[in-house]
Structure formats: C-alpha cells, structure tokens
Fold this sequence. Notes:
By secondary structure, this protein is of the alpha/beta class. The protein has a single domain (3-246), classed as 3-Layer(aba) Sandwich (Rossmann fold), CATH 3.40.50. It has 8 helices and 11 strands. The protein has helices spanning 3-16, 36-39, 59-66, 79-88, 128-138, 192-201, 217-223, 230-233; strands at 49-53, 71-76, 95-99, 113-119, 139-150, 157-160, 163-166, 174-177, 186-189, 204-210, 239-246. It binds S-adenosylmethionine. Residues 6, 9, 13, 20, 25, 54-57, 59-60, 76-78, 81, 101-103, 119-121, 124-125 line the site of S-adenosylmethionine (SAM). This is Methyltransferase domain-containing protein. Keywords: Methyltransferase, Transferase. It comes from Cytobacillus horneckiae. One of its GO terms (molecular function) is S-adenosylmethionine-dependent methyltransferase activity. Residues 51-147 form the Methyltransferase type domain.
Amino acid sequence: MNSETIIINKQTxxxxxxRFFGRNPLPEYGPLAPTEEDIMLFDHIQGKxxxxxxxxxxxxxxxxxxxxxxxxxxxxxxxxxxxTAEKVLSNCPSVQLFEAPMEANPGLPENYFDxxxxxxxxxxxxxxxxxxxxxxxxLKPGGAFIFSWExxxxxxVKQVGTELLFQHSYHEEGFYDHEAWKRPAIMQQIKLSTYIxxxxxxxxxxxxxxEEVRMSEADVEKxxxxxxxxxxxxxxxxxxxxxxxxxx
Length: 248
Ligand SMILES: C[S@@+](CC[C@H](N)C(=O)[O-])C[C@H]1O[C@@H](n2cnc3c(N)ncnc32)[C@H](O)[C@@H]1O
C-alpha cells in the first residue's frame, strides 16, 4: 500500500465528494456505458450479502437494498463519503460501513459475501494485487465480483478538434495525476491484460468482459462534460466492466 498517495487522494475525496453525490451509481456502470438493465450481470440479488468497494455516497448500495439484498456492506476511505452514505442508507436495515482504504482489510469477514462489486473506484487503488487478493478473501467460494472502471485506452487518446491523437503509450502502466481534476488525484494506469491476469492469479474465473458504449440521446446529454464526450466514445470505450467468480 502506498500510504502517501492514499493520504493525498483521501484529502481530495473528502473535499470533492459533494460533486460526485449519486453520480453514475448502479444500475449505471459509468458514463456512456451500458447499464445493469442492459447487461444483467448481477443475476440474483434477493437475500444476498453484498459488499461495495469504494461505496462513495452509498447510492449503489441503495440500489442493492431496493433489489432485496439482505446485508449491505461498504468500504470507502473518505470520511465525507462514509458520512453521506450513512445518511443515504439510513432507512435500510443491516448496513455496515467501513472508513478504510481498499488496500487493507479493516475487519471484514472472510469467505462471507455472495457478491462484491466496485463501481468506478478500483483504478484508485495503490496496489491492485493486494486489493484483488482482499476481495477474493471476502467472497464465499462461488461468489461473484463485478467491477467497472474507466477503460485503459480512454485516457491514452486526446481529442484535438475532430481528430483523436495518441497522447500516451498504451504499454505504460503506473501512477498518474488525472488531468481532469483540479486537486491532486493519483490514479493507476492498468492495462486490460493486467486486470485479467491479476484476477486469474488470485483465483478468479473470468465470466464476462464488456467494453461497449451506450449512446442514446439522453446518455449523450447527461454525460457530456470536459472528460467524457460522445465524439471520443464513438471510437474508444469509456468504461471497462468485468465479471468474475471465486472458484468453488
Ligand atoms: C467515483 S466514486 C465511487 C462511486 C460509488 N462506487 C457509487 O457506486 O456511487 C470513487 C470512490 O472511491 C473512493 N476511493 C478512492 N480511493 C480509495 C481507496 N484507496 N480505498 C477506498 N476507497 C477509495 C473515493 O473516496 C470515492 O468515494
């Protein structure tokens, strides 16, 4: 775990959290990405114990509650996000929230969860290997892990006028300070193959990899901002979604 980076990012999230209140939670997977209603990765939520990694304002956990999940557990390192999630989930029974980095186990039970998921949070990890190993340990054998994050090609390419230009090499991995953020926001550039191999090396079986873009008129209008644009998304996926399962 890279403690210095975690401290910097935590401060940024504590200050910026409000801007992300309820932004793209489940059933959304991310900007201009297909939704859970389109791709149905979660199959049975009713009666399940679910864990949200990087739960943010708690809206994805609220979705899980509305779909009948039995126990809602969430982890997020931002104090502001955890306070907000407590309010958002105040009418839900059986909620357990941990203010902690995803790189370490703050006391979560092992071999316990039917489903772990993470919506646009995993690329903030300072240690993918450790994070995936932790998530694997929390799941029951046969439990599912589903996550979305910005597609690793998306920030490699810049739109200049009508042209798309490669700004960075796809081969380069490691930490970078995201240019769209006004405060320091240190994320990890991780190739698709690294995600897949880290999951496999930690005992996950990959069930689905999704790179599709969804561009209804409403999506385009909702997600149009400095960073995500329909023009770029016509050629490059915005979001990577992976579903995998802990082997039995
Ligand atoms: C885009 S938000 C997630 C939104 C949320 N998953 C949802 O569905 O609404 C990313 C979250 O990751 C959290 N985060 C970033 N780095 C983290 C880390 N190393 N450990 C735990 N949480 C982290 C941030 O505090 C933020 O709440």
